[in-house]
Amino acid sequence: MIEWITSPGLTGFRDAESWMEARVAAILDGSANECIWLVEHPPLYTAGTSAKPQDLTDPDRFDVFATKRGGQYTYHGPGQRVAYVMLDVAKRGRDVRRFVQELEAWVIATLGEFNVTGEIRDGRVGVWVARPEKPLAMNGQPAEDKIAAIGIRLRKWISFHGVSINVEPDLTHFSGIVPCGITEHGVTSLVDLGLPVTMDDLDIALRQSFETVFNEAPQPA
Q: 33, 151, 37, 158: which is closest to 94 by C-alpha?
């Protein structure tokens, strides 16, 4: 069974990392169940294993945390739901690519609950939303904005870190980095798209969509 935990308020990033490390160890030794942990962070930037120093354009704006998850620079802050996934990938086929695709499908299905069409793009990490009402991007392509980020790490086939979905963060906070190394497109949120979605609304959709995508019923909190 998968335990779902929702933490109120804002959780410090290093505190979250320590908690995940302990939970992964407990899952490995059989003393704890798999877990999905829903949190919000104070404003901060994280650097994944592929982060490029030049993509941190305002290093003094918020705290910056190096992390061993995959990916580049990411912003976390109030109004953004972070879902940390501590799941056994070994019992789900030992296929990391497929697992990441399932996480993407989970995010897309969750957005679909609000009639938002999330899409994946080759060469670009995360989930994107077409913005046909906006001017063309700098490369002449139709405008697209990023609404969700994905970055995981595995330890002995147990995943940690996870996904983040923008509900109503301060989108100006993303300007201190080049999010995931992408310069041609912007960032959006559910509220920026004109949807009066709350964090509680998103949490309900995350749980419903998880059961559908992973074919597993979550354990009651």
A: 158
